[in-house]
Write a structure and sequence with these properties.
The complex is a heterodimer of chains A (1046) and B (252). Chain A is 54% helix and 8% strand. In chain A, strands 10-9-8-17-14-11-13-12 form an eight-stranded mixed β-sheet, with helices on both faces. A seven-stranded parallel β-sheet of chain A has the order 3-4-2-5-6-1-7, with helices on both faces. Chain A has a two-stranded antiparallel ribbon with strand order 15-16. In chain A, helix 21 (539-550) runs antiparallel to helix 23 and helix 39 (899-933) runs antiparallel to helix 40. Chain A is globular, with a radius of gyration of 30 Å. The mean pLDDT of chain A is 92. Chain B contains nine helices and seven strands, in the order H-E-E-H-H-E-E-E-H-H-H-H-E-H-E-H. Chain B is globular, with a radius of gyration of 17 Å. The two termini of chain B are 28 Å apart. The model of chain B has no long low-confidence stretch (mean pLDDT 93). Classes of the chains: A alpha/beta (1046), B alpha/beta (252). The A-B interface holds A 14, 36, 39-40, 42-44, 46-47, 50-51, 53-54, 56, 86-89, 91-92, 179-180, 183, 188-189, 191-192, 194-195 and B 84, 97, 99, 143-148, 150, 152-153, 155-157, 159-161, 163-165, 168, 171-172, 175, 178-181, 184.
Chain lengths: 1046, 252
Amino acid sequence: MTTSEKLWLNAQRFGLASVDRRIGTWIREYAAPRISDWTEAENALMRILLDLALIPPDELMDPDGRCDTVANALARALGNCDREAPYSTDYLTTLAALAFAAAGNFPSASVFARRACQNPSPGQAERWMLRTLASPHLSLFNEEPPYGFVSYAASTDRALESGSPEDFAVARTELESACYRSFDALERRERYLLLFWQQIHRRFEQLSVARTLHEIGLSNQAYLSALLEDMSPLFYPSQVRTLREQSLAQEDQPVLITLPPSTGKSLLGEIALVSSVVRNRDSRRLGVYLAPYRALTDQLQSRMRTRLVKIGFRCHIRRGGYLMDRGPIDVGQPTILVATPEAFDALLRQRPDLYESLAACVFDEFHLIEQQERGLRYEGLVGRFLSGAAGAGWPKVIASSAVIQDTERVVQWLRMEEDNIAKLPWRPAAHRLAITDPEGGIQYYSPEEQLPGTDGVRATIWSGQIDLPNRFLRIPDMPYAPMWDIYRRQLAENVVRVAISQWEKFQQPILVLCSSRTQTKMVAHMAAMNLPKTEEDAAAAQLAHQIRSRFPYVHTLQDCLTHGTAYHNASLPDWVRSQIEMLIEKKRIKIIAATTTLAEGIDLPFRVVVFADWRFWHFGKPQPVPTLLFRNIAGRCGRAWEFAEGDTIIVDSPDEQHTSYPSRQEEYRELYVDPPPYPLRSSVERALASNNDQVLASTRAVLESQFTAHVAVCNGSEHAERDFTRSLYAGLKDNAAEYTQTEMVHFADDMVAEPSFPVMKRESPLTLTDFGQIVLRTGLSPRSGIDLAYFIKDYAAPQEPSEGSQLRHDYQIAWEPVIYALWDRVRQTSNIQELENRTKEQIQGSGYPVTSDNFPLIAMAWLSGVPTELIAFLTFRRTSDERNRIVDWLNESEPAPTERFEEDIEQVAVFCNQYLGEQWSWVLRGAALIAEEHLEALGLAFELEALAERLRYGAKHLATIRLLGSRDRLVDRAKLDWLFESYQRFRFLQDEELDLSQFLDWIRGNESWLKNHKFTQFNRIRITKEDIDDLYVLLQHEINREQEAQ
Amino acid sequence: VDTPYSQYKQILLPDTEDGLVHREVSRDDNAFADLVASSLLSLIGRRPAPVSGISQRLQGNLCEFCVWEIGEHYWGLYTRNCTATANAKSPWRDLSKSGVDILAVDEQSDTVFLIEIKSTCEGGSSAVADDEDSLKADFRHLFEGSLEERIWGSVDELVAHLVIQGDRSLADTVIGAVGSKPEDCTGTTLVAVLVCRSGKTQRSHNARKQAFQRLHKWLLAQGWKKAQCEYRSVELSDFRAWLSRIVEKVTE
């Protein structure tokens, strides 16, 4: 029997699973143990730990997420024993840190080492070990090694830097000698720690970044040094395994990385790109990292850039939509581009020559091919590569996802070897899944960790009770609409109770994942009302103060922040969202209620994720959160290096289909606890399953756009429709393939037969016309391109109607004929599918502030830089009493807007930022390109282009846009626009050119007048001192940047 | 041959009349003290400075050393290289560390000895079976109380010592003998040692004997087996004089 097997057996003999469960229950405060209970648990752990300690370094278990399960669970349980007790438990924390490190789990070791460092450690050796483990940078020599270990520490640092096996051998000999010589000089308890340190040293050898890179042939010393400067000198075990066993860095074969969240997949992607570009530097110098969220691209680029610059690589970022970011990309030098899928698709449509430069492409969050529209763009890009757009076998595709488990179809699609799948389940933090029941019970599961002697994935590992205020077995009968609101509030009360109970237990940030914007706000506010006020000088309270001055209409959030809670959704200004993210990063927010954008994007330190609802809006209707999405979001709790454990809690709520708890429980288990192998499904497949016309129409539009891009670069075949279908993931599924091919045949026929603006021509093979080439670049569906071409061709500026002219005058809203005319064309239904989405449905429905009739006014107000709260006021059509209260609030006679008006403002903000700022702006950019390059309507093209830019930012002046686009939109768009206009008027300037220094001087010269100046008819909307201060920062930053550029 | 064993044999008179406690009655306290002092001097290597008085802690440490010494050389339970001690290896200090007094593994029999020692200038019955500050309290602390007092500190240290010395197999023996509670510790033997004044009357002897019986009963109730429990007393005619002589001999 090996020593590792013995550890497993004794873990069973001494009841590790049972101890782990009991401790899990106690630290979550579901049971109150006696001292003797703790003692008994500690004794069992200390006994099992002896078996771990005795494993010879060369026989240590593989840190693969399976063999190391016992060691990790043991370490975690020891760490969880640290508590207020009649005796000191410090030593258990030390042991937890060392045991984790011995198991190869350095992120969790760091968590406990940092905690143990705060304790009065008895000896220098123990302190040295803890300090070394506490920092990811692992500098042994700098952490004051004890006498006898100085030379060893220096040797190990040297080995970690060089990666040389000889250096590691020297260090190992020095360690053995130091242990032998210094044993008696150490404190008693430190002597035992030496056994773990010898194991840890072995992990240094196994996980060394330098050693691994040398072994896989990536011996670029500059890159290695850059990596070591930035990060730990140790890889995660899963990274080492992937680099050694999959041809990630050696060959230009496709690779699929399906490692769990928080296991360093992005670094693997970077290494794959760098090695591929280095390997092919004579011919292909471009590596592309695709990340689906803008915040993620920012985070990735800022991490990569400093490293890449040091090895002579350029690192660019593209994160806008189609036709937005058109800065040059020069691939004369090795280049890594970090981009969103849309931005990269747009780039390739603009610059097809880049295909030939592509060495490798990382598709991060690959499971997003399930997502409506965006998923198809991922599929389309991969499909083009598979069809040889970049040359046969190019680029190397690295698909990365934390959640794909059933890989068979992906392997088939990417035409890859099974050996090239990195599948290790290792992850630094343990994950628990809990589900509440209607009676307030909460059952915990541990789907990813099966300890010896446990009963399988579906077995409850522990349970507890939460005092839920409301209990629903099924949806109650609600004959009146207001009862729905009450019901929703009651469900939210349950969610809040769960979230607060978690905060009280862990005192660490809790994410409540909500299915709607409204729910985020309700949950955050309710939670705030149940928590005490924070100190005035607390970071969250300070942010509340800043928001009060900068964005007074964001009222509820201010209340929330003063109690340490917040919500995060698309309605908030960018600056506010980024500030909230920063507070979460610093753990200054207790409970944050957010939609999926926060959870799916950047990695933030949440201890617990609470699912407020298990049904989200997908493919046109509310559906249970898909298994893959659930896994991805659930994986966000327990961030590596912050926590050794993370909990996900689903708060039970009834739905129409599952009217009894047992049926819902079964559904939860099937979907989330123990889902059967779940194959990735293409968005075409999902759209067909949804049976929703709107969903199918938008899917078809993206398919058509992708097919056009396919035809542009993969031409040469007689059967373009068939080839395109086969190139897609959807092509592997019969019904999706049939649908795609049939639709593309119809589409191609239509595009060839189009009388005035044909997009394609059949000249064996199918090719794009000149017009088709232009439409291709827009990224729009070609049908939209054709419709826009007709619009432009027939365009005659409509006269400004007298109706509404007084209102426009009062609010300084400029008449925009193009907007009026285009809305007139699309208001019912149109071929411009990019404008036909859920927002359009809401406009045409009832209860939404924007209507078919007031759409032009709202769009023009947005374009004229009217403050968001005033745009919402323009849409107001409820009682005069409420109107008066809103006017009072706008005049500062009332402290808060009415609840409904605040909701109106948020809806208007989302409408303007997303529907106008993204969809309409994109369509107008496309129209401008068509007008300029195909119809030679240069005047209109110029107008369309300017409108598109202004729609994107909601400003009247292009000069304002220039500043808004620069840095986190620090200053409110309406205020900045007004300031520029005032400056322009005072200085009698005619054009949009902005001399930043002169503008700054003007602000300085007029500061006292500008401060507290109300620039609308309402007192509340005025320039504040904080706005002026922000403006100084913004302008100075821009001036410096200009000077640097010169 | 004048071995340590033969030297101790000449001084200590074994007596197991009651069938429970192995008594070592000193025939010659001075000779016994000289032997112990000589051994202590060779351990600490240099003669320490004279001390003004003998503190409770130093008394305890010296007795732990004495038992460590005779445990190896006279009782033959272990070799000292296979032991972990709380204070016996560094007895000359006015500081007493908690933990099992002597934890030893016998290479021959694969037995692990958990030796707790109490010393007293009195007859010793209270040092055996009182609830606090007694052998009973020490054994109770093997699996409860503060972490330092529990068995783990000593087991961990012994295992580390053996591994660093290159004897993993013996370390494995130690681990195999120890469990998380008394009934799991099948390979261990508890040794309760009392170092005390012999007492001139049968009464004091009986009191000690009864105390050991109470301790024995209590240990069995905790889950230890009869065969796992050993009781020993080292009895001196004049405990104080014996101790003073050791100190004098070491420092003179």
